[in-house]
Write a structure and sequence with these properties.
This protein is about 35% helix and about 25% strand. The chain has 18 helices and 27 strands. Strand 15 and strand 16 form a beta hairpin. The longest helix is centred in the N-terminal third of the chain and has 29 residues.
Amino acid sequence: MSDNPLNKPRDIGGIENIIELFNCIVDEKNAAYVSAPITTGRRFLAWFKERGCTLDPESPQYKNEHFQDVIQPNKEEVKTKIANLRRGLATSAPFLIDPTVFNWPEWNQDDYRYFWGRVIERYIKRVVFIDGWQYSSGCTFEFFAAVRTHTQTLNEQQTPLDANAGLQLIKKAIDDYNNCSIPSGYLQRVATELENWLLETLQDPLKIERLPDKPSPGPNMNETGAAAAREFLKDETVERLAMIGNVAQFASFAPDQNLSQRFSRVAGFQPNHSFASPQKAIESLLANSPEGTVNVRSFLPGKQKGEPLLYGIDNVEKVMDILRQKAAENKYTIVNETIDINDGGVSGVAIGHVLEFSPADTPKCVDKPGVCRLPRDIGLNLLEKVYGFRPILNFHFSYRVEFSIHPKKRGIRHGHTITWEMEEVNAPSNVPEIQWPNNFSRMLGDKVYGLLIADCLGLPVPQTTVITRHIAPFTFGIKTGTSETWLRTCPAVRAPGQFPTYFGWRDPFELIAQQPLIASVLAQEAVHPEYSGSLVPGQPDGTEPLIEGVRGMGDAFMVGEASPQELPGEVTKAVRELYGAAFHLLGPLEIEWVYDGKKVWVVQLHKSRVSSSAEVIYPGEPGAFVRFNVGDGLEALRELVAETKTQTPGIGIVLVGDIGITSHFGDILRKAEIPSRVEKP
């Protein structure tokens, strides 16, 4: 960011030395940051209209009144807001940086803006923008810096603030300043730079400052003038990703007699270091792989998918044999470090509004049954609650991105998110229906997953700490204030009434050891139970709930040891409103609830079977549909697509099988623009 025309700092070296001090305090991309107006904001605009416009800006009176009426109250207000944010962000971002308390007298505004822009680029995973930020030159630059480095941007209410929305706010602030004859030159420059960046990103989401317009040729790679006009090969895409994101260590090879090296990214070596031989490259990858193994991927130009992934190879000669075999088939190869798929993380695909993933698998999991499918924003929020960090998947929706996330940091940039592949596709515009059980819900436990979904959707869920077999404990939900605990055993799939629930504390590890079918144990803060009960869909379409319950605790009622009682109208009204909000988001549900006298809390939530399982892959209304069993494989689907494209009127395809819509099956259909959907058998 040092060459950005928005700032001209006087001593970049000195500023960078101060930035390095952050390494002693915070991991890269692990802190939150508050961007707040101090000398400007809405308070300044109101003051200037009424009073400031009548004063000489250089006069002591202007400066004194500006301090008393704008700066001082802004500081006091921001101090309170930051204290509240520290409490709210404590679990998701262990550090919150407050730039308002930092003062370096020798610096000018360019120095400050450069400094905080670099801090955001290196250390910040989310920036919260306090109301009125768009009137501040420093805040607007910080917004641009965050957007350009794919840092999450939130407004004061901690809801997403995307680049377009921020740009419109800045433009409105410019209009407000111009109407009051307040100089707005810097804001106009930021708006222009941000608008240009957005236009470039729409054309090429990978086009940012550190990425060249075309890939740099690797060693022994003959680059021709026609290279920019052709489709990027798979290893070229990985190399481009390595320039802006976190990829696994790798080396790639051409299908010639010498297995000429094309690209490499290996710890301890310069990017695209030219190894003396393929054997030396593989030796270095094995030596630098924490697992001591590598994977091999292969591909053909024009057909870069469908080849099997060869996983977990620990011997140089075995890898060389595979490379020679693939080269004889005229296939390019990529050798990358193995990243343990059994470390408790997940792998999957992001495309359009869809996020699909599974634990203990590679991104090819979307071709298999049991994939977890969620709307993208909800999926990212859910993963952040479980793992404590937000996956870095801030790519344009028109790209299909294969990724994995890991509790331990991995890859060339030592991060939690690994990007494996990325390509522009005909992304689906539909938002997927939320369904479970799936592989991820089975790993966490059915009750946990349902409550996580409820919490992600903003439904009131008591604060819950989850102890699982496979990942570190995590906490989500809202404190109820009782300081009492329910301990709930949680099987992988729903088993109503089969496993015990305890009011008060028990040894959770003993419970897990005694019950092999239990995936986790929940320690859930109790709700003051004026009334408790459950509901199920009461109509065939699930729109109206059947509500039952009792006064006080509902544990005896839930196991059939107490009969339902007549509930007060205020209780049934509150429960029905809760169901309506949840139904609007999830469809038919079964919910266990507790009413505390003021509101209804969700203590269990399950999908009802009253809903459809069909999912749209590519929209359209063809003359007819043909059914295709995914067990017949990708090649058979390609043949069917070629045949279908010749039919008049148009023919659609129904994929029959429990697979992801982001799978390669779906990708073939999207690319061919054939109306299609998935139907579970």
